[in-house]
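Posting for a labmate who doesn't have an account.
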Amino acid sequence: MLNVLNIKGALISADAMNTQKKIVNTIVEKKADYVLCVKLNHKKLRHEIAGYFHKIKRETPEFIEEFEEVDSGHGRIEVRKYRQLRVNEWISEASNWSNIQTVIEVERERHFKR
């Protein structure tokens, strides 16, 4: 689908199933940006990202950009915490992902109203 769309300047987001290097290369070639979900579909990358966040939280937490949002509906309250870090050579797998700039960690909590 990406091959037939004009995505120049767009931000493309996809689920873990579509987190593929070939898809990323197509997005970058068409001059767009991407946000992708990394789960256990890319185990080494996921573990490196988790380790990187752990290291930075411990050593230089001021490098982490943070944002929190609270949402309610359907009988529950959801809290989402987003943390962002610039990619550096500590994540060796990053070199395999064209134009990767940052990584984001998302923490979610659900509280049910009763």
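Reply:
Got it, the structure tokens are right above this. The longest strand covers residues 76-86.
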